[in-house]
Amino acid sequence: MFLISVLRYAFFLLVPLSLIFTSYLYLYPAFHGCAFPSPEYDASEAYVNTLRKHALPNLYDAKKVAPFRLLALGDPQLEGESSIRDIDSVNLPNLKKFFKDSGMSSGTKHTLLQRVRHSLHDIIDFWLDDLPKAFEVYRKRFDHIGNDYYLGHIYHATHWWLDPTHVAVLGDLVGSQWIDDDEFEERGRRYWNRVFKHGERIPDEVMSQPAFEFQDTIILGDDAAAWKRRIINVAGNHDVGYAGDISRDRVARFERVFGKANYELRFQLPYNDTGSISTTVGNVDVRDIPEIRIVILNDMNLDTPVSDKDLQDESYRFLNDLISTSHAVERSALFTMVLTHIPLYKDEGICVDGPFFDFFEGEFENGVKEQNHLSRDASRGILEGIFGMSGSAEVAGQGMGRRGVVVTGHDHEGCDIYHHINQSSPEEEREWKCNRYTEAKRVADQSGIPGLREITVRSMMGDFAGNAGLLSLWFDRESWEWQFEFVNCGLGTQHIWWFVHILDFITLIVGIVYGARSAALKVRLILGFDGNGKKGGKRGKKVTFEMMPSTSRVVPEKLMGKAGTSNEEVKGVVNGSSR
Description:
One of its GO terms (biological process) is GPI anchor biosynthetic process. Keywords: Membrane, Transmembrane, Transmembrane helix. It comes from Sclerotinia nivalis. This is Calcineurin-like phosphoesterase domain-containing protein. The chain has 579 residues and is α/β, with parallel strands linked by helices. Among the domains are: 361 residues, Purple Acid Phosphatase, chain A, domain 2, CATH 3.60.21; 42 residues, no CATH class. It contains 15 helices and 20 strands. The strands form five sheets. It has an eight-stranded mixed sheet. Strands 3-5-2-1-17-18 form a six-stranded mixed sheet. Strands 7-8 form a two-stranded antiparallel ribbon. Strand 17 and strand 18 form a beta hairpin. The longest helix is centred in the first third of the chain and has 51 residues. The chain is globular, with a radius of gyration of 38 Å. The two termini are 25 Å apart. 35% of the residues are buried.
């Protein structure tokens, strides 16, 4: 009975705690106030409208929601068997050696004393070496499984609550470029079946190459359900390697499992959402069709030295094709979004990661071994090439370039900055600079200062609070230009996920044990068993009654009246025995 009481009180305490913490975990985007930025620039209204979508659908206002909503996730870095040390310890080598040295598994030439000495060493090594290492291997494997579901929880919770139109993972999908093909395939399987379950690889025919007569433009909103499931995967250094160790085989396996490394997507607003279309014809105001150009760029080998010059030539050929097939910089209603892994160059102290390059020595053509940013030249090539910006006002569009944004990963801490160049500075001092976006808002969109925002999305790994980036893009009909805004939505460290699920598991076990013990007790009571499993009944002294013949003494009338007319007297005899 005492155990049942303890279980009952524990269960009644654990159930509400489990409900509270589990509700928080699975509804954390709602508790944290997460919502895609709205065209009204009102964060509270955006959150309330998102809440209405789930709680009061009839009051949900779809007009207050941006037509393009990107869920941006950075650097999941799935680990695997190669990251586990002493993996052979699960085979218990010292235990096997014990059986061999003791002569139990096969014959041995050692003397009895030698066998005893070796066997004792083997047993000690088994307990102090094999078992701790084997335990650590299984712990790491279990941790990998939990990490997969933690990352998957971030994706599924934000995807359900926020309802994005598109999803992108900004590189470092796996944790190492050095793994063999079998393990790469295994991590890819986990990526699609655990982390991004129900997500889909973009079909090859949809991932288009730049062309003058681009035929694959997609109407924004067409096939919306499919695009919500599709994952735009960007190649990172842990996927294909840096410039010094990137190889054609690594790129090929990445493209086979996750999608092409270089391609573009174009989306246009539906005709009925744009009003009228292109320049003035007669009395009809004809304007450019609002279009979004998304560039998925493998920037891993834009810097030198490289181990594979042909691969670098392919990357620069793709960049040149992008530039040559771009719309004129003067064209309105065009927005260019570059999704890549390594951030553009920035000075020390602006973001957590400062400029850094390291190179191989004597191998891989002494190529780039590691880098935090692209070089100044590669960064300038993207800003001035893809976006058409310039330090000179004498070029097309007065050097102000195309509207757009660069979204990157790699720096796990995340960063939000603004690149700009002052055309009024002396020519010898005219160079690209950058500041944190909050500090640079005063120079954004100023005449004579071309600029571009770059958002480095904080990692979704547990050590970086399980972050997700939310980018909204909408069309302003008054200025006839695209506008965008970005916010973060974080879950918290992986320990929160582990704590809640361990608590739920303990609650489940306590509930099962309590239910089983309570049911067993009820069955025993129904069958008449006591707590010790024996038939129930009162224990103690037994009282028996015997009929004694009457004697010559007179029986009182009152007693006779009670006993009837019988000549026998009722006499109680106490028996001190017990059953």
